[in-house]
Amino acid sequence: MTELRRDFLKATALTTAGLALGGFMTASATAPDERPDGHLTAVGRLTDADGQYVLPLLPYDYKALEPVIDEATVRLHHDVHHKAYVDGANKARQELAAARAAGDFALVKHWSRELAFHGSGHVLHTLYWTNLTPKPGGEPKGDLGKAIADDFGDFTKLRAHLIRATVAVEASGWGILAYNVLERRLMVLQVEKHQDLTVWGAVPLLVIDVWEHAYYLKYQSKRADYVAAIWDILDWKAAEMRFAAARSAAV
Ligand SMILES: [Fe+2]
Questions:
Q1: What is the pTM of this model?
Q2: 67 C-alpha vs ligand 1 centroid, how far in Å?
Q3: CB under 5 Å of ion ligand 1: residues
Q4: In the chain, N or C: fewer CB atoms in 10 Å?
C-alpha cells in the first residue's frame, strides 16, 4: 500500500467516524498530490479548507478496475454523478445559510431534504471509490475479521447476507457493512437512495453502489452479476482501517 493510499484511507476512516458523531467532520489527514501514470490520485476529504464539499480524485486510474468496472462507467460515475452530489450538497448548504441570514425558512424542508440526499451521496461515493481496489488483498483480517465472526458467525455468512441485501435494494441504493458506534456491533444495511433506511449510530465501513449508473453500461439489468463481480475487487484493508477509527469513536 502506498503512503498516499494509507493517508487517504486514514482520512476517510476519520471522516466516517465523524459522521457517527452527528456531522460532516473534516479529516485531519491531508493526502499529498501524486500523479503516477499521468493521473491525479490524491484524494482525501469531503470538504476543502473553506468548508466546501469537494469531489475527491480517484485513488487509481479510470480503467484500473477493468474488467469488473469499465472505464466509461467510472468516468461517468465519478466525474458526472458524484460531482452532481457534491454540487447539490454545496447548493443546499448555501441555501440554508441564506435562510438563516434572511430569517426566512419557508423552504427549509426542501433544502434540508436536498442536503440529506446530496450530502449522503457525496459521503457514500467517497467511500465507494476507496473500498474498491485493482489489487484486492483477500478476506478481512485482524479485529474486523474477529468482529465479523462474533456478529455474523463467519465471513461466509456475512458475504451471503451482504450480497443478497445489496442485490435486493428496491430501485436505487446501497448495500453497506457498517459499525454501529452506539450498539458497538457490526450490521448490514440496505439503504435506499443515499439516506433512507439507515440506523442512528451506523458508520459505513464498506459500501456497494447499486444505482444503475454504477453498472448499467456493462451489466445492463443484471445487477446480481455486477454485485458478484465487484465482490472480487473490494478492499477489506480499507474497511479494517475504518473499523479501527469507528471503534475508537464509539460512544
Ligand atoms: Fe453512484
A1: 0.85
A2: 18
A3: 209, 211, 214
A4: C
